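Repro:
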Amino acid sequence: MAVPILMPSLSPTMTEGSLAKWCKNIGDEIKPGDIIAEVETDKATMEIEAIDEGILETVLYEDGTEGIAVNSLIAVLKSKNDTDKDINRIINDHKASIINQSKDSTKLEGVEEPVNASVIEKTEVIDIEEQKDSKNDLENKNEQQIINENNVSKEKADNRISISPLAKRMALQNNIDINFIDGSGPRGRIVKKDIDILLNKNNDLNKKVNYNYKENKSKKITSMRKVIAKRLILSKSTIPHFYLNINCNADNLLIARKDMNFDKTEEYKISVNDIIIKALSLALINVPEANCSWGNEEIIYYGSVNISIAVAVKNGLFTPVIRSAETLGIREISELMKDFITRANLGKLLPEEYEGGNFSISNLGMYNIDSFSAIINPPESGILAIGSIKKVPTVINNEIKICNIMSCQLSGDHRVIDGAVGAKLLNEFKIIIENPYKMLV
C-alpha cells in the first residue's frame, strides 16, 4: 500500500518548515530507519527517518523549498503492488483534506483562508494587488460603457486622476507626484507598471550622477528570523514589560574566576557568563516568587530553575536551557554551555534543548555594550541583560577606588512580578556576584 510522507512537527511551536535537501532520489528503495530528507525548522536542521519500506515514487517539493506547513504531503512511498492510481489517490485525498481544513477554518473564523495548492501542483504566482488592478480595470470598462451611452465622462466630471490602488500606494511611499504621470492603463489610468518605469528611470539617473551608487540587495527571510520576529512581536505586544537597573562590583568575581582558571587550558576555562548563570539561579531560589510564569487561569511557580541563555548564531539566535542550574557546579554549567554553543552554530540543537526555560540571560558585555533592555522570551517571567565590565571610580568607605563595575538590567513581566519583587531579585543577584563564595555554600 502506498505510504504518504508528511512534513513532521518537530517542536510544539513549529507550524511550518523548510525542506533543506532530499537524502534519497526518486526510484530509490527505502527501508525503515533510512534518512529520507533533512528539514530545517525555526531553530535547527532535523532528519526525517523512514518508518515504512517502499520505493520513493513521488517528491512534491524540491531542495530548499521554504514555508511548508506541518502535516503537508511532501512525498509518497510506493510498494510493489501499488499502481499510479493508488499514488494519485493519496495525493488527491491529501488535497481534499487541505480544502476541508480551509472550509472548517472559514466557518470558525468567518474568514476564507487560501488553500496551499502548491502541495499538489505547480501554479503561477500572481500579484494579488495586480489582480485587484485587473478587476478594477474591468469594472471601469463596464462603467465607461455606461458613461459613453450617456455621453458623460465621470472622471472629467469629478476632475480626478484615475490610478490603481497599488500604484497610488507606491506613489505615496516614494513621494511621487502623480499629476505629472501619463498612465498606460485603460483611459490613461495610472497602474503599477507606470510607477515602476518612473522609479527605474530615477535609479538610472542616480547612477549617472553618483558614481559611487551601489545597488540595494534583498535577502530572503529565513525560517529562524520569521519565528524570532513573530515571538518578539508577541512578547512586546502582550507582556507589560518593566525595567530595573543595578550595578555590581565584579572585583571579587574576576579574582575568583582567575583562581578557577589558574591551571586550566583555554578549552576548559570558566567564563564570566558561566558564573552569572549560577548566580542568577541561586538568586531565583532565594526569591522564588520571581521564578514563575503567567498562565491563562493561573500563575505557575517553578520548583527548579531552568535558565535560558541567548546564543548568537549566523542567522539569528538560540536559547539553550541549563536545567536545574541551581544544582549544578560552575564547571558543569561551563561544560554544558560550551557544548550548546558548538552545536548551536552547527544547527544541531534538539527542540527539547532550547525550550522550557523559566528565566533568561542575554549577555552583550563581550561586544563592549554598557547596558541594554532585553525583550522577555514568553512564557518566561523575565530576562537579565548583562553589559560589559568597566573600570569606574567608585566610593567605598568614603574613599574613591577604581572598581570593575558590571551593569545589569532586569526586564520583568509585570503581570507576575511586581517592582518590589524584581528589586529583591536584583539585590540578591548583586550580593552573590559581589560575594562569589556564596555560590559554594
